[in-house]
Specification:
By secondary structure, the protein is mainly alpha-helical. It contains three helices and no strands. The longest helix is centred in the C-terminal third of the chain and has 49 residues.
């Protein structure tokens, strides 16, 4: 049981708890310095997802046009390179 727990945690339970305590303290100090609170992080995530949903479809359209632009160069270059490599 202890071996599986150690494998799951990546280290011994005591060292893992110590690492988590240190990381929590450092993150807490940084968040306090910037006057951030956990609910702010949740609001940022929510706002990010809403903005992604609202602008995502426009981004997909731009992605498609970039894909076609790139393919206009890449595909002919690929074909030429493959044809030149067949001669060897």
């Amino acid at each position: 049981m202890s071996d599986r727990l150690t494998r799951f945690l990546g280290d011994t339970p005591g060292r893992t708890v110590l690492k988590l305590l240190v990381a929590s303290f450092v993150v807490g100090v940084v968040m306090a310095a910037f006057n951030w609170y956990p609910q702010d992080v949740l609001y940022w995530i929510r706002d990010f997802l809403i903005n992604l949903w609202e602008t995502g479809f426009a981004a997909l359209g731009r992605f498609g046009s970039y894909l076609v632009l790139g393919a206009a160069i890449v595909i002919p270059a690929f074909i030429v390179i493959r044809l030149l490599s067949l001669r060897r």
